[in-house]
Amino acid sequence: MPLHRSISLLAALGLFSAPLPSADAFGPPPKSLVQQTAEAKLLAEFTRFSTLSDGTVGVAVRDLQTGETQALNGDTLFPMASAYKVAVAGRIFALVDAGEVRLDDQLALDPALASEGGIAWMFNRPGATLSVDRLLELMLQKSDNNATDVLVARAGGPQAITAFVTKLGVTGLRVDSDTAHLLYRAMGINPQSGSFRQNADAARRANPILVTRDIRDLPNLAFAMEPQDTATPTAMLDLITAYESGRALSAASTQRLFTIMAHCETGKARIVGMLPPGTAVAHKTGSLNGTGNDVGIVRLPDGRRFAVVVFVMKDSKGHVSRDRIIAEASRAAYDYFLYAPDRAHGLAHNG
């Protein structure tokens, strides 16, 4: 073997046989640096998922034990669509707690409150009623607009719902319409009389763009920019946190609310879409012309819980893309809260 190759081989053997410095020689990594990296990675993931949309994405998540909050576009206003029904439910349960409403109260299905789909057919039956509890199930599990507007009326109207939310100290969330009038605004019409079905059909005949927009799930940009019936992701996060903490409702009402939401039948590919099978989730979705939302509480394997809100607006790529954004963000938050290093209580970041 040539001398220079022997020397090179011995040098290499000497390099790899020499003991490496112990871990202690480097010292422990600064805890703040580890934490910053974990947070930065989470927020970077939120940003990466947001590029799946050609609209605007907002994400807010919170560890319900420590209060740590992380957000992307957390203070941006988004149309709530049917996610506003979480606020309606809270107002109804607050009335139950005050003794003004009972869950077994039967509410009349006033034909003037019927819109389309769902249980709209029941409103034509003379004397038809449903219990408050059943209406809550229909509203939160099936997102039935007809059931919702019966409850909005019983809640005292949109302003009473907003007042309930504001009293909890939640800012950045407002309810201005029942569902029928929310949909009227989305269609750009302001009917003065007639049933919802008559008015909607007339508007669609007069403006075929409305039909195209619905079929292709395209955004109504003017509607998306209106301040009415909007919330920031952080405001919705604050509302769901107020419920979960027991600060807003009695223990019985809180339990019933989340039990109903745990059986949500809409949005199977959203918050729950990428979570491990069997993960307990209580959530409520919202969808309307380029808008896709989901808000909920997720339980981790060790029993800890976190809240998650994902809003997408002004998106023209379709519900599959929006659903994936919500699912990806929810899974990133799940992994972060489950595996990231210990975090300081109350730490917050709003991107």
Task: Reconstruct the topology from this structure.
Blueprint: H1 3-17, H2 23-26, H3 31-50, E1 56-63, E2 69-72, E3 78-79, H4 85-97, E4 106-108, E5 129-131, H5 132-141, H6 145-154, H7 158-167, H8 179-187, H9 196-206, H10 208-216, H11 221-224, E6 230-231, H12 233-245, H13 251-261, E7 281-287, E8 292-299, E9 305-313, H14 319-339, E10 348-350
Parallel strand pairs: 2-10
Antiparallel strand pairs: 1-2, 1-9, 3-6, 4-5, 7-8, 8-9
Give a verbal description of the structure:
With 351 residues, the protein is α+β, with helices and mostly antiparallel strands. The chain has one domain (31-350): DD-peptidase/beta-lactamase superfamily (Beta-lactamase), CATH 3.40.710.10. It has 14 helices and ten strands. The strands form three sheets. A six-stranded mixed beta sheet has the order 7-8-9-1-2-10, with helices on both faces. Strands 3-6 form a two-stranded antiparallel ribbon. A hairpin with a 5-residue loop joins strand 8 (292-299) and strand 9. The chain is globular.
Query: What is the end-to-end distance?
Result: 63 Å
Strand content: 5-15%
Helix tally? Answer: 14
CATH topology name: Beta-lactamase
- What is the averaged pLDDT score? 91
**The CATH H-level homologous superfamily:** DD-peptidase/beta-lactamase superfamily
CATH class: Alpha Beta
Could you say which structural class the secondary elements and strand pairing correspond to?
A: alpha+beta
Unreliable residue runs: 6-17, 344-348
Identify the strand order in the major beta sheet.
7-8-9-1-2-10
**Biggest β-sheet: count, sense, barrel?**
6 strands, mixed
Number of strands: 10
CATH architecture: 3-Layer(aba) Sandwich
**H/E element sequence:** HHHEEEHEEHHHHHHHEHHEEEHE
- The domain count comes to 1
What is the helix content?
Answer: 40-55%
Shape: globular
Give me the Rg, rounded: 25 Å
